[in-house]
Structure formats: structure tokens, C-alpha cells
Amino acid sequence: MITLYGIAISNYYNKVKLALMEKEIAFVEEAVRPSQNEAVLKRSPLGKVPFIKTPEGYLSESQAILEYLEDAFPEHPLFPGDAFERGKCREFIQHIELNVELIARRLYAEALFGGSVSQETKDEVRQKLDTGLTGLAKLLKLAPYALGDSFTAADVVAWPHLQLVGFATQKIYGENLVNSHIPGIESYMQLIESRPHAQTVAADRATALAAFFANQ
Q1: Staple partner for 21: which of 2, 38, 145, 197, CB 3.0–4.6 Å?
Q2: Which tens digits make up the pLDDT trace of 73-98?
Q3: How far apart are alpha carbons 28 and 5 in whole angstroms?
């Protein structure tokens, strides 16, 4: 049995949760916030979430977890069987996480948590997001899934990240940069959201967000 630790408002947590559900892997959830508490650091070296408990021990970093789940539970694969196509899937994931989500994260303090971000930072992030999203559009096929006619790990990763990046940029710039840079992305997001497991993840996230903001 896998135990998934983290918080349901996290896009990286929801990436792992959606993968577990799509692969039909039995798991339980335990709410843990990022922390420098020694009990958390023993299980996640930097105190980050998500992390999981496996029969062999603890594992952190969402992409390492995704790869582990694919190797340990080969049923219902999320990565293509062809070596090149697997490489393209990993290329897509690395691009969206390093060149889009990581860049947009600098906006979250203001977009999500009531803080403030300098205009200089907003301008710099906008420029980098324009570049990152333009590159992402070149990798996306939307036929109808991210990389073709099959639901893959690329979709597991794209859905929670693009949803959050779109929300944050709408809040900061008055424009959803994801929608602006990627024609057809709105229909794609609706397609993913029509999947039962994505609906469960979204409902749990909404409940967690309501509780989070109620306690602020």
C-alpha cells in the first residue's frame, strides 16, 4: 500500500494523486504541510511535499515518484512503450515544469496568498512565461491529448500545472497566458476534467482550498 503525503492544494501533490488513481494503485492520503520539522525531514530531505511511503521506504520529488510508480506498477502505463515517444513525454514534462510552472511560481505569493510581488518581478516573469508557453505550444499536439491519441503522464502533469499557471496569470496580468499562447487549450482542459479521476482530484482540491483560505 502506498501512502501519499502532502496537501491537496498543491499542483505537484495532485499530479501524483492523479497518476495513482489513473494507474489504479491502492493508496491512502495523509495531510502533511511542507515543514522543517525533523519528523518530516526524515522522510523528505528538504521538507517538501508530496512524498510517498512505499514498502521499501520513503520517496520524495514528484517526478521521481511518477517514474517509480510506472516502474513498480507497470499495469495501466502512463508512459508510451516506444523509447522515443517516452523520451518526448519526459521532454514535455521537463519543459512544462522548468520553463513554465517554476517561472510562474514567483507570482503565487500575490496571486494566491495575499502577498505582494514587485512590478519588476511581474515583468520578468511575463517575459519568461511568454517564451516558455510559446515553446510548450510547439510540443503540444492536443490530438486530443497532450501528445496524441492516448492519455499519458504528460496529461497527468499538464492539467494541474496549466490550471494553476492560468489562474495566477489571470490574477496578476488580467490575462490567462496559457489560453493566450496555446490555441485549443481550453477544450483540452475540459477533456481532462471530464475524466472521473480528475473530477475527484478537483473536488478534493476545492475542499482543501476552501479550508485553507478559511484559516488565513
Answers
A1: 197
A2: 999 999 999 999 999 999 999 999 99
A3: 9
Domains of the chain: 2-72 (3.40.30.10), 83-214 (1.20.1050.10)
Q: What is the DSSP string of 160-180?
A: HHHHHHHHHHHHHHSS-HHHH
Question: Do 44 and 51 form a contact (C-beta atoms < 8 A)?
Answer: yes
Band the pLDDT of 213: cuts 50, 70, 90: confident
What one-letter code names the amino acid at 55? P
CB-neighbour burial class of residue 99 (10 A; exposed 0-12, middle 13-18, buried 19+): middle
C-alpha cell recorded at residue 89: 513525454
Cis before 183 (ω within 30): no
Any residues with CB less than 8 A from the CB of 118 and at least 6 apart, and which? Answer: none
- CB contact set of 165 (below 8 Å; sequence gap of 6+): 100, 101, 104, 129, 177, 178
How far from the centroid of its chain's Cα atoms is residue 144's Cα?
Answer: 19
Residue 214 pLDDT greater than 80, yes or no: no
Instruction: Give the span between the Cα atoms of 71 and 81, in whole angstroms.
Output: 12
How far, in whole angstroms, is CA 164 from its chain's centroid?
A: 8
